[in-house]
Amino acid sequence: MAHGVVPPHIYDHIIRTTNDPDLKNRAQSALHDLSNLHSPHQPGQGEGITAGDDDTTYTEQQTPQGQQEIKELEQEDEQADKNDPVDPHDLPGGRKRRQKRQSTEVPKFVYNIHQGCDENPPSMVDRKIGSPIAQDPDVNTVYDSLTVVDNFFRTVFGYNGIDGNGRDFRGTVHYCDKYLNAFWNGAGMFFGDGDGVAFNKFSDYLDVIGHEFGHGIIDAKNPLYYYGQSGAINEHYADVFGIMIKQWNKSQTVDQSDWLVGAGLIPGARALRDFKNPGTAYNTPSAGQDQQPNNYASRYTGRYDNGGVHLNSGFLNRAFYLFATSLGGNSWDKPGRIWFAVLYNNLLTYNTNISSFVTQTLFACSYFYGGKSGTVYPKLLEAWRTVGVPIVEPTS
Ligand SMILES: [Zn+2]
Prior knowledge:
Elements: E1 3-4, H1 8-17, H2 21-37, E2 49-50, E3 57-58, H3 64-83, E4 108-112, E5 127-128, H4 137-157, E6 169-173, E7 182-184, E8 189-191, H5 206-221, H6 228-249, E9 260-261, E10 273-274, E11 283-284, E12 288-289, H7 304-308, H8 313-327, H9 334-344, H10 354-368, H11 377-386
Parallel strand pairs: 4-6, 6-8
Antiparallel strand pairs: 1-7, 2-3, 4-5, 7-8, 9-10, 11-12
């Protein structure tokens, strides 16, 4: 399963308006790939992924060996529960935690594909833990960003690697020639260099990297069908991880942050996404205008963009922004804990809708922070009301 970070309407705009045949070709190529990247996918079919220099195969399939491993992990959990009875992210009704409670540095591998368009990383790794600094500066940039992503999830949520169980982070730079996107394909992340006209270099943006690895974590903990409302929630979660990682890396409070994802990625525009004012991140002759509605009533209901996954994430982002700024402090504290716990406990169904998602955030908020009569719950309720989503309050 793969996700590109750029919404398709930007490519369509370029194709419609540019006089530059090369740029048109680049946009057509990226748009064409999007339809392949976003093919519908059922989780748990056991797609094995082999990548990298250590020949590790990852599979979701529960083989007898896998079941044995889960059993061992559950026994470890029980043991750990005796020593550490409170997991700060556990919620009632959540799926049993199946991961090792380690907090060692997660392996990170960065590859240079030298403009190749193969979706498998090259056989030679250019940078990993313990290796010297690479010659290619973009390899090092991505390695450093992956280190931040790893540190963020371990430090803030006690969560290790992509799957919570130490699965490594992999990034490949210089994907294709002047490629106008970055994407997560289930095995790792691939970064286009952009062309400096429609897009700058994707590997330069920590929040874009955080967004893409966020998709990996969603797929691992609570897969969400990448279409319609569940797809918009999927995109929203990836944006939330991206913005939190950016703020955490800069030690920024919610009041200090610009709440932009991919600031500077589109030449001449502010950013790729704007949490505070969805629909205003860009408006340039090349990219066209940001199309995100800022409230539920204006939501997109057609089939374009996988049913508006990059469009209807906007007002969800705005609700997160409104809630976080109404509390003050750090986004990754109370708002981050609530959002993460809903995912971590697998409380969302594969094709969940926005209303159910809203209910689960309210449930987690109530559970963690003093119930409905606490000071936090009304602020979350107010944020959801402001963006106009249908609200069904939890019973407790
Ligand atoms: Zn995405």
